[in-house]
C-alpha cells in the first residue's frame, strides 16, 4: 500500500527532491577557474572569428555543449553550461547540426557521465536545444557503411520529423588528399541543407566526425560557388598549457578509447616559432583543411591547427595548483572507468594500458583515491558488496549490504545521517515501511533481489519526510553530496549509478560483479 503511490505522492516526491537539490551547493575543491572571465573572453573571441567570414561559418564545437562535466571536474569553477550560454547570444543567426558516428550507434556506445547511449543522447540534445530556443537543422550519421543499427536510427529520426544526412568512409583518410577533396571523397557525402549563417556542428561525444562534416560542407559549398568559413571551438587540449600539464593529460585519459594523443603543433611552431599543444587528429587533418581552403579562396586563412581554434580557457585559470590536483583526480577516475568498461566488454586492454601510462607521466597512482580502501575494507569485513562516500572536509562514511538495502542505498543513507548530525542508530525509514516495498518487488514485479536501490530508498525517505522531521532533515542534506567522491566494491546496477551521478557525486567502481553470472541487469 505504501509503495503503490498515486500521482500526488510521485509529484510530491519529485518536488521535494528537486527543492533539496537546489537548496544549496558546496564546492568540494578549491576554485581554480574564473568562469565569468571565461564567458567574456570566449564570447569576444568567437564574435571576432565570425566577422572574418561574411557568408557562412561552420563552427565545430568540441566536447559537450550542455553538460561538460569533464571540464567542470578538471577546471574547478567552470560551469558545465558555459558554452551554451554563449551560443544563446547568437541564437537568431545559428542552427545546430548534430553528428553521430555510425559505429557508435552499432556498438551502443555510452556517455560515461550520463549513462545513456550516444543515439539516445542525440534525441536528448535535440530536445534540450529546442527547449531553450535553438534551431536544430539536421542530424548527420558519419562513417556510414550500411550498419543496420544506423539504418534503424535514421528511420526513427525521420519518423520524428528530423532531417538526416549520411556521410561515408573515405579510403586513405586523412592522407589521400586528392581523393578526399574530390567527387569520390567529400563529394560522395550528402550535402547538408542549412538556412542560417552560423552552423554549429556538435555531437554526443568525441570521435563522432564533426571536423570531417565541416570540411565536407566546405567542399560542397565550393562546388556550388559559395565561400564559407570554418572555426573550431575545442576546450581540450588547452593549447597554451604545457603538453604534459595534468589538464591535458586528463583529456588524453578521457579519450583513451579513441587513441587520441596530445602533441606539439608542428605547423604553429614552424609558422610562428611558438610552442602550442594540439592533438593528433587535428594535426593529421590540417593539410586537408588547407587544401580545401586553397580551392575556395586561393589560400588558407590558417597556418596551423592552433590558428583554427578559438579556445580561451587557458587564460582563465586562476589557481594552477588547484587545477592540477583536480585533473590528477580525474585521471584516476578515468582509470577505474576504463577497468569497468573492459570488464563489461565496452573497452579494450589498450585503453587501460594507455591510462596507466598517463598516470605514470603525471606521477600519480590509483592509491590517491581515498574512498577506495575504505570501501574494499568494508566489503572484506562483511563478505558482501560495500561502498564509501567522502564527505565535505574529507570524512569518509561507508555502507554495507543488508537484508533491506543494497550497499549503495545504505551508504547514501549513512552519508545523509552524518551530514545532518543524525545518530547512526536512528532509523530514517522504518523497516515496516521497507518490507512492503520488498514484497511488492519480489512477489508482484518478479525481481529476485529484494534489497532497495538508491532511487527506491530516496522515494521512501521522501515519503517519510512528510511526517518525520528527522527524515526531512536528512533529505535536506542531498545538495551537500554534489561533488563528493564515491566508490563501490562492485559494479553497480545502472539505476544506482544514475542516482549517484544525478546527485552530482563522482562515482567509481571496482571492475567486478557481485555474482559470477554472465548476465547482469
Account of the 3D structure:
The chain has 521 residues and is of the alpha/beta class. Strands 6-5-2-7-1-8 form a six-stranded parallel β-sheet, with helices on both faces. A four-stranded mixed β-sheet has the order 12-11-13-14, with helices on both faces. Helix 1 packs across helix 19 and helix 9 runs parallel beside helix 12. The longest helix has 24 residues. The radius of gyration is 25 Å and the shape is globular.
Using the CA coordinates, give the radius of gyration.
Answer: 25 Å
Tell me, what's the shape? globular
Mean pLDDT: 89
Question: Uncertain regions: pLDDT < 50 for 5+ in a row?
Answer: 1-14, 20-28
Fraction in beta strands:
5-15%
How many distinct helices?
Answer: 21
Multimeric status of the protein: single chain
Q: Report, as a whole number of angstroms, the end-to-end distance.
A: 27 Å
Q: How many beta strands in the DSSP annotation?
A: 14
Helix content: 40-55%
In the sheet with the most strands, the strands line up as: 6-5-2-7-1-8
Sheet bearing the most strands, described? 6 strands, parallel
Amino acid at each position: 500500500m505504501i509503495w503503490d503511490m498515486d500521482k500526488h505522492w510521485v509529484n510530491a516526491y519529485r518536488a521535494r527532491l528537486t527543492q533539496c537539490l537546489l537548496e544549496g551547493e558546496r564546492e568540494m575543491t578549491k576554485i581554480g577557474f574564473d568562469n565569468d572571465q571565461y564567458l567574456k573572453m570566449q564570447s569576444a573571441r568567437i564574435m571576432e572569428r565570425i566577422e572574418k567570414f561574411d557568408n557562412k561559418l561552420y563552427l565545430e564545437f568540441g566536447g559537450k555543449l550542455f553538460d561538460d562535466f569533464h571540464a567542470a571536474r578538471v577546471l574547478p569553477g567552470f560551469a558545465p553550461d558555459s558554452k551554451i550560454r554563449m551560443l544563446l547570444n547568437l541564437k537568431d543567426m545559428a542552427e545546430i547540426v548534430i553528428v553521430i558516428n555510425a559505429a557508435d550507434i552499432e556498438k551502443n556506445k555510452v556517455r560515461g557521465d550520463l549513462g545513456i547511449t550516444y543515439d539516445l543522447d542525440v534525441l536528448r540534445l535535440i530536445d534540450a536545444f529546442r527547449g531553450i530556443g535553438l534551431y536544430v537543422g539536421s542530424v548527420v550519421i558519419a562513417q556510414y557503411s550500411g550498419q543496420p543499427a544506423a539504418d534503424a536510427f535514421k528511420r526513427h529520426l525521420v519518423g520524428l520529423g528530423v532531417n538526416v544526412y549520411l556521410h561515408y568512409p573515405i579510403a586513405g583518410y586523412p592522407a589521400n588528399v586528392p581523393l578526399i577533396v574530390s567527387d569520390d571523397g567529400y563529394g560522395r557525402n550528402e550535402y547538408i541543407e542549412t538556412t542560417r549563417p552560423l552552423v554549429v556542428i556538435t555531437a554526443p561525444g568525441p570521435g563522432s566526425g564533426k571536423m570531417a562534416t565541416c570540411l565536407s560542407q566546405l567542399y560542397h559549398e565550393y562546388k556550388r560557388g559559395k565561400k564559407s568559413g570554418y572555426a573550431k571551438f575545442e576546450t581540450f587540449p588547452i593549447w597554451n598549457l604545457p603538453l604534459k600539464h595534468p589538464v591535458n593529460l586528463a583529456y588524453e585519459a578521457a579519450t583513451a578509447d579513441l587513441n587520441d594523443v596530445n602533441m606539439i603543433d608542428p605547423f604553429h611552431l614552424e609558422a610562428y616559432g611558438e610552442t602550442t599543444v594540439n592533438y593528433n587528429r587535428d594535426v593529421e587533418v590540417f593539410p586537408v583543411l588547407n587544401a580545401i581552403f586553397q580551392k575556395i579562396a586561393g589560400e588558407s586563412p590558417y597556418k596551423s591547427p592552433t590558428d583554427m581554434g578559438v579556445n580561451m580557457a587557458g587564460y582563465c585559470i586562476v589557481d594552477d595548483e588547484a587545477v592540477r590536483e583536480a585533473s590528477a583526480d580525474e585521471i584516476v577516475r578515468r582509470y577505474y572507468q576504463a577497468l569497468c568498461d573492459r570488464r563489461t566488454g565496452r573497452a579494450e586492454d589498450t585503453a587501460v594500458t594507455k591510462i596507466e601510462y598517463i598516470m605514470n607521466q603525471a606521477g600519480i597512482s590509483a592509491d590517491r583515491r581515498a574512498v577506495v580502501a575504505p570501501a574494499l575494507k568494508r566489503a572484506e569485513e562483511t563478505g558482501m558488496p560495500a561502498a564509501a562516500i567522502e564527505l565535505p572536509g574529507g570524512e569518509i562514511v561507508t555502507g554495507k549490504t543488508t537484508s533491506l538495502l543494497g550497499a549503495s542505498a545504505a551508504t547514501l543513507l549513512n552519508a545523509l545521517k552524518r551530514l545532518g548530525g543524525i545518530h547512526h542508530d536512528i532509523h530514517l525509514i522504518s523497516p515496516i515501511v521497507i518490507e512492503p516495498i520488498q514484497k511488492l518487488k519480489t512477489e508482484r514485479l518478479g525481481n529476485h533481489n529484494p534489497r532497495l536501490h538508491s532511487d527506491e530508498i530516496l522515494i521512501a525517505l521522501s515519503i517519510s519526510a512528510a511526517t518525520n522531521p528527522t527524515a526531512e532533515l536528512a533529505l535536506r542534506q542531498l545538495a551537500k553530496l554534489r561533488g563528493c567522491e564515491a566508490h563501490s566494491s562492485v559494479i553497480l546496477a545502472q539505476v544506482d549509478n544514475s542516482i549517484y551521478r544525478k546527485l552530482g557525486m563522482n562515482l567509481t567502481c571496482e571492475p567486478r560483479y557481485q555474482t559470477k553470472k554472465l548476465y547482469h541487469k
